[in-house]
UniProtKB/TrEMBL annotation:
Matching CDD domains: M20_ArgE_DapE-like (cd08659)
Keyword set, alphabetical order: Hydrolase, Metal-binding, Zinc
UniProt cofactor(s): Zn(2+)
Species: Saccharopolyspora taberi
Pfam family, one: M20_dimer
Protein name: ArgE/DapE family deacylase
Cited InterPro entries: ArgE/DapE_CS, Bact_exopeptidase_dim_dom, Peptidase_M20, Peptidase_M20_dimer, Peptidase_M20A
Keyword Lyase recorded: no
Peptidase M20 dimerisation domain boundaries: 189-291
Entry keyword Hydrolase: yes
Length: 392
C-alpha cells in the first residue's frame, strides 16, 4: 500500500537528512571495537560484544531512547533500545554485535575509508547495518518525528556461532528487519545449517604390512565416494526463494604418522537446511547415503553438534510489503523478494522477519571486508521509511 502524501513528505524530509559523513564515521568507530566471537573459547583481551553493546546504548541513549545492556551469559551481551511511538505495531531493527575471527587479516579494526567504501572486520557483516540504525535514530531525533508504533533496535550476540543472543532476547515485535549483507535485496527466507561428525574406526598396524590392519582414512574416502552423487541429488530439489539445499565436506582429520596405518578418521560434514527441513531429518538422509556406499569400514554419524534453524516469512505478511514499498521509494528498482543463502538468527526472534542490508556475502568473512557507503545511505533510507510506515 502506498503511503499517504503527508507520510511520504515526512519520509522524504528524513531521507534528505541522512548524513553520509556521520554514517561513515559511526561505522568506522564500530569496526574499531573488537567483538570477535570466541566460538566456544575464551574472549581475547580487550574484546567482546560488550564494547559494541555499550556504544549502541550510549549513542541511542543520548537521543532519548530507553535502553539497556543485558548480560545473557557470562561475558556475552545484548543491547536493546526503544523509541516510544504511538499505539501502532512495534518494529524491530536487529543485528548482531559479533564478528568472525581476524587471523591473517592486516589491520582488521582500522575502519579505513577510501574509494567510497569502509574497510575492516565486520564492515558488512554486519556493523554497517548497526551504523545505519544509529543514523536513522539521529535523523528521527533531528526531525522530532513520532512514529506510529515503538521502534526497537536490538544488537544481539553470538550470531556467528550458536545464536544465543537472539535466543535469549525475550522480546517480541510485530515485525523485524535484520540488516544482514543482502546487497540491498529483500530476503524473505534464509537457509539453516546442520553440522555432523562422521567417525570411521580402523585398526592400526605397521605400514609395511597394511593387510594386518584396517585403514580408517581409506575407509572414510570410500564412504565419501558417493558424496558427489548426493550433492547432485540435492541439486534436483528446490525452494522458490532459496533454491536447492547444499552439502559440504569441510574438515578431515586422522592418522598419527605416515608409517602407521591409521586407526581412526573424523570427517566434519555440513548440510544447509531449507525451511521445513530439520537437522534430524538431514542426518537420517545422510546415514542412508553413507550406508549405500557399501564397504567394510566401521563408521558412525553423530547428531548435529551445530544447528541453525532455517526461516521463511509467512506468505502475505504485511512486513514484506512495507519494506518493498520503502525500497522502491528509496530508488531501488528490484524489490522482488528472494532468499538469503547463508544462515542467520532470523528463526530465533519469534517474530516475522525480513532480511535487508548493505554489503555482500562475497566480502563477509573475507580478509578484505568492505561495504559501499552508498549502500549504507540507501539502507538507512529504507529503514526510516519502513519505521514511518509499519503499523501506521
Amino acid at each position: 500500500m502506498e503511503p499517504s502524501d503527508g507520510l511520504r513528505a515526512v519520509a522524504d524530509r528524513c531521507a534528505a537528512r541522512i548524513d553520509r559523513e556521520r554514517l561513515t564515521a559511526t561505522l568506522s568507530e564500530l569496526i574499531s571495537l573488537p567483538s570477535v566471537n570466541p566460538f566456544g573459547g575464551e574472549l581475547g583481551d580487550g574484546q567482546g560484544e560488550l564494547l559494541v553493546a555499550r556504544y549502541l546504548d550510549d549513542r541511542l541513549g543520548r537521543l532519548g531512547w530507553d535502553g539497556d545492556v543485558v548480560e545473557y551469559a557470562p561475558g556475552r551481551y545484548n543491547a536493546v533500545a526503544r523509541l516510544a511511538g504511538g499505539g501502532g505495531q512495534v518494529l524491530m531493527l536487529a543485528g548482531h554485535l559479533d564478528t568472525v575471527e581476524t587471523t591473517g587479516y592486516p589491520e582488521p579494526f582500522a575502519g579505513a575509508v577510501r574509494g567510497g567504501r569502509v574497510y575492516g572486520r565486520g564492515a558488512c557483516d554486519m556493523k554497517a547495518a548497526l551504523a545505519c540504525y544509529v543514523e536513522a535514530a539521529e535523523v528521527l531525533a533531528a526531525e522530532a518525528v513520532e512514529l506510529p508504533g515503538d521502534l526497537v533496535v536490538a544488537g544481539v550476540g553470538d550470531e556467528e556461532y550458536r545464536q544465543e543472543g537472539a535466543k535469549a532476547l525475550g522480546l517480541r515485535a510485530d515485525g523485524v528487519i535484520i540488516g544482514e549483507p543482502t546487497e540491498l535485496v529483500i530476503c524473505h527466507a534464509t537457509k539453516g545449517l546442520a553440522a555432523y561428525d562422521l567417525t570411521v574406526t580402523g585398526e592400526a598396524t605397521h605400514s609395511s604390512v597394511p593387510q594386518h590392519g584396517s585403514n580408517a582414512i581409506l575407509g572414510a574416502a570410500a564412504l565419501l565416494g558417493s558424496f558427489g552423487e548426493y550433492v547432485r541429488l540435492l541439486e534436483r530439489r528446490g525452494h522458490p526463494l532459496l533454491g536447492p539445499p547444499t552439502a559440504n565436506v569441510g574438515v578431515i582429520e586422522g592418522g598419527v604418522k605416515p608409517n602407521i596405518v591409521p586407526s581412526s578418521c573424523t570427517v566434519q560434514l555440513s548440510r544447509r537446511l531449507l525451511p521445513g527441513e530439520t537437522a534430524a531429518g538431514a542426518r537420517e538422509e545422510l546415514v542412508g547415503v553413507l550406508a549405500g556406499a557399501g564397504g567394510s569400514a566401521r563408521w558412525s554419524l553423530g547428531d548435529s553438534w551445530w544447528t541453525v534453524e532455517p526461516y521463511e516469512l509467512p506468505a502475505g505478511h504485511p512486513l514484506g510489503g512495507v519494506v518493498a514499498v520503502a525500497a522502491e521509494l528509496s530508488g531501488l528498482a528490484d524489490t522482488v523478494p528472494r532468499g538469503f543463502p547463508g544462515s542467520s538468527d532470523a528463526a530465533y526472534f519469534g517474530s516475522p522477519v525480513v532480511l535487508f542490508g548493505p554489503g555482500s556475502l562475497a566480502q563477509a568473512h573475507s580478509l578484505d571486508e568492505w561495504v559501499p557507503v552508498e549502500e549504507m545511505v540507501t539502507a538507512t533510507e529504507v529503514y526510516l521509511r519502513s519505521a514511518l510506515a509499519f503499523g501506521g
